[in-house]
Write the C-alpha cells for this entry.
Amino acid sequence: MTSSAKPKSGKRFDSPEQETFLNLWRTYDCLKALEDELFSSYQLSAQQYNALRLLRSVHPASMQTLALGKRLISRGPDTTRMLDRLEQRQLIVRERRSENRRVVEIAITTQGLALLDEMTKTVREMHERQLGHLSRTEQQDLITLLKRIREPHEDASCDWLDE
C-alpha cells in the first residue's frame, strides 16, 4: 500500500465524535498560528497577553495569583515562570501580603497598560483575520456550540467564561 492510499475500510474517522474533535483541533491550530505570529512580535505568549488583559480588567486594583490562575484561558503548571517573565519586563508587579506571606497580589504596571494599548489595533485585526469571514449570527452560534461542548467537562472555576 502506498502512503497516499486510503485505509481499506474507506473510513477516515472512527466516529463522528472523532471527526468533530479533530476538526476542532485543526481549527485551533490554524487560528493559533496567526496568534503566535502576532504575540511573538511583542515578545509575549498568548498566555502572558491573557494575564495582562485580566490584570487590566481589575486595574488599579490587584489580583491574587490563585484568582488569576483560575481565570486564565489555558491553565498550565508554569504560571509562576510566566509571571516571572512579565515581572522581569516590568509589565507587572507582585507583592506579598504582610498579614499572610503566602498570598501574592499581582498588578499591571503603567508599562503593561501601555503595551496593551499599543497592541489593541493589531489584536483586533488578528481576530478579524481569524473569524471576520463569519457573520455575527454564525459567530454567536459557534460560541453557543462551543459552550455546550465544554459544559460537561468544566468545573466551577471556569464560570467566568459565561460572563
User: Anything to note?
Assistant: Strands lie at 63-64, 92-97, 100-108.
